[in-house]
Amino acid sequence: MADIHSPSGRFHLHHQRRRVVGTLSYHQILVVVLWASLFACIFVWQRSAVNVLRVYRRGPPPQAPMLRPVVFNLTDFGGVGDGVTLNTMAFERAVEAISKFSERGGGQLNVQRGVWLTAPFNLTSHMTLFLAEGAVILGIEDEKYWPLMPPLPSYGYGREKKGPRYGSLIHGQYLKDVVITGHNGTIDGQGEMWWSKFREKLLKHTRGPLVQIMWSRDIVISNITLRNPPFWTLHPYDCKNVTISNVTILAPVHNAPNTDGIDPDSCEDMVIENCYIHVGDDGIAIKSGWDQYGIAYGRPSTNILIRNVVLRTVVSAGVSIGSEMSGGISNITLENIHVWDSRRGVRIKTAPGRGGYVRDISYRNLTFDNLSLGIVVKTDYNEHPDDGFDPEAIPCVENISFHGIYGRDVRIPVRIQGSEEIPLRGVSFRDMTVGVTKKKKRLFQCAHVFGRAIGKIFPAPCENLDHYDEQGRLVRRSTSQNSTLIDYD
Ligand SMILES: *[C@@H]1O[C@H](CO)[C@@H](O)[C@H](O)[C@H]1NC(C)=O
Ligand SMILES: *[C@@H]1O[C@H](CO)[C@@H](O)[C@H](O)[C@H]1NC(C)=O
Ligand SMILES: *[C@@H]1O[C@H](CO)[C@@H](O)[C@H](O)[C@H]1NC(C)=O
Ligand SMILES: *[C@@H]1O[C@H](CO)[C@@H](O)[C@H](O)[C@H]1NC(C)=O
Ligand SMILES: *[C@@H]1O[C@H](CO)[C@@H](O)[C@H](O)[C@H]1NC(C)=O
Ligand SMILES: *[C@@H]1O[C@H](CO)[C@@H](O)[C@H](O)[C@H]1NC(C)=O
Ligand SMILES: *[C@@H]1O[C@H](CO)[C@@H](O)[C@H](O)[C@H]1NC(C)=O
Ligand SMILES: *[C@@H]1O[C@H](CO)[C@@H](O)[C@H](O)[C@H]1NC(C)=O
Ligand SMILES: *[C@@H]1O[C@H](CO)[C@@H](O)[C@H](O)[C@H]1NC(C)=O
Ligand SMILES: *[C@@H]1O[C@H](CO)[C@@H](O)[C@H](O)[C@H]1NC(C)=O
Ligand SMILES: *[C@@H]1O[C@H](CO)[C@@H](O)[C@H](O)[C@H]1NC(C)=O
């Protein structure tokens, strides 16, 4: 069909007829009309066949539910979902219109099926952004459209470069009651341009996240897909009461630098559940500021529950805590976490100079499938914003429990490395069975670790831990808590 339709084909045909038929131009017209109607018939038939198939397979696309007292469509504000037209103004006008309803329950913006190209825009309070099935919000691939913003106060620094940083594609500050949801529509940052410019060192400023909500509360992000962020994907910063549920996050696992999935940063009361994350850096990374800037800002990440999440990353870890943790990180529960075909399962990372603490962390029911390392604690992650950090600011790492660790094909199930300066206290393991790829000498590596191993633990726990049986009776007290049997082979 495409071949017959091609202009050169038609020209060829036309040319031949003119030579044969000569001056009989009515004949010529007839032929053209006949061909045209034939094409029209085929075209209409094909389209209806496709439509019939679509209806047969999926039924009609579901209508957007009405989640706020007033509902707008992006098209009401001049939006065009053709993948080419820039919709920044339409989004801005929609947000402006919705902000007028903040006293009356807020407003909902439906983004219908289509591809909606846009530059970054800001959200407003009491707003629901609803992405229909087949709706794609596409970030423009030109950094001059991305506004510059001051660095985050707890980082003091653009993170990659000094000075200002690019804002996020979808951004919000000082908001209350914001929902981003839908029927699995997509927000796509077209990160490729940013990743290659970053690699070629062509960017003057730190790349922006895909979605960043700052100093806000009562945020729900659910039932959507986020893909190809320029930098981190979803970054709630100094927020309270955030729920992230049923979200799919996708970036290439190779050559997509710093594309973390979700970075709860100085956040309190947060749930992340039922998510699938497949990215080029940490799947989830809980943070709270960097060295002297994070200590001065002093906002911890606390009361965070992460459950039923499947993750993959070949560069970093499924779920990380740190390395920026200078405001403190506490009361984190992670359960039913599955990490597959990845470099590391879960990791805590810090260094002298960070200050702060990581405490009351509970990991339950972790499944590791084909990893290089399962559980990792690293206390010499020496990456600092500048020379102004205080090397005497020693972080405290304590009360970390691992309960129910399963899996197979893991090269080194455990490497928890404290140091003379940063000992790991109150570490406990209960019920662990992790199959290993090959019999290495050290499968459960520890340094400066204080704590206990309870019940059945495979591979056999390190010497540093006191051993208890299933009933909680002491079997053997450790005499070498400071032993440092780490093996980087
Ligand atoms: C929005 O678009 C849908 C179809 O996608 C239509 O049914 C609805 O009436 C529109 N709503 C408004 C407020 O224009
Ligand atoms: C969003 O709001 C922030 C804070 O007011 C501002 O710095 C930024 O430029 C705004 N972004 C856009 C795209 O208007
Ligand atoms: C949502 O879309 C993503 C990307 O197309 C897909 O991988 C995922 O399975 C979808 N989620 C649901 C619940 O349909
Ligand atoms: C948290 O946010 C949700 C969604 O906006 C809201 O329903 C709930 O009341 C909030 N919880 C608290 C304790 O503020
Ligand atoms: C998310 O999708 C599920 C079904 O997949 C549905 O039950 C739920 O209501 C949706 N949430 C929203 C906010 O639309
Ligand atoms: C997530 O999906 C489940 C099942 O499809 C649904 O019950 C739940 O309401 C959804 N969560 C949200 C916050 O939409
Ligand atoms: C710890 O966090 C959970 C939420 O994951 C919360 O329910 C609980 O109250 C918090 N505990 C304390 C002591 O704050
Ligand atoms: C443990 O987590 C896996 C998913 O990673 C889940 O299938 C399984 O049901 C969980 N087990 C329990 C006892 O909750
Ligand atoms: C294990 O994961 C690595 C890294 O993603 C992958 O290259 C390899 O194919 C996986 N092995 C198996 C047996 O699936
Ligand atoms: C250890 O942390 C858990 C939560 O992760 C908490 O319930 C418990 O009270 C803490 N124990 C100590 C001794 O601080
Ligand atoms: C282990 O090192 C700590 C300092 O990190 C020290 O206080 C303690 O006495 C040492 N314990 C043993 C058993 O050597």
Description:
The protein is an alpha/beta fold and 489 residues long. It folds into two domains: 67-233, Single-stranded right-handed beta-helix, Pectin lyase-like (Pectate Lyase C-like); 282-489, Single-stranded right-handed beta-helix, Pectin lyase-like (Pectate Lyase C-like), CATH 2.160.20.10. It contains six helices and 30 strands. The protein has helices spanning 2-5, 7-21, 25-58, 88-99, 192-199, 291-297, and strands at residues 70-73, 82-86, 107-111, 114-118, 121-122, 127-131, 135-139, 148-149, 165-166, 170-173, 176-182, 186-188, 211-214, 217-222, 225-227, 234-237, 240-245, 248-250, 268-278, 284-286, 301-312, 317-322, 329-349, 357-378, 396-417, 424-436, 444-447, 449-458, 465-468, 474-476. The strands form three sheets. It has a 24-stranded mixed beta sheet that branches. The termini are far apart. Bound molecules: 2-acetamido-2-deoxy-beta-D-glucopyranose (11 copies).
Helices and strands in order:
Elements: H1 2-5, H2 7-21, H3 25-58, E1 70-73, E2 82-86, H4 88-99, E3 107-111, E4 114-118, E5 121-122, E6 127-131, E7 135-139, E8 148-149, E9 165-166, E10 170-173, E11 176-182, E12 186-188, H5 192-199, E13 211-214, E14 217-222, E15 225-227, E16 234-237, E17 240-245, E18 248-250, E19 268-278, E20 284-286, H6 291-297, E21 301-312, E22 317-322, E23 329-349, E24 357-378, E25 396-417, E26 424-436, E27 444-447, E28 449-458, E29 465-468, E30 474-476
Parallel strand pairs: 1-3, 2-4, 3-6, 4-7, 5-10, 6-11, 7-12, 10-13, 11-14, 12-15, 13-16, 14-17, 15-18, 17-19, 18-19, 19-21, 20-22, 21-23, 22-23, 23-24, 24-25, 25-26, 25-27, 26-28, 28-29
Antiparallel strand pairs: 8-9, 29-30
Helix pairs in contact: 2-3
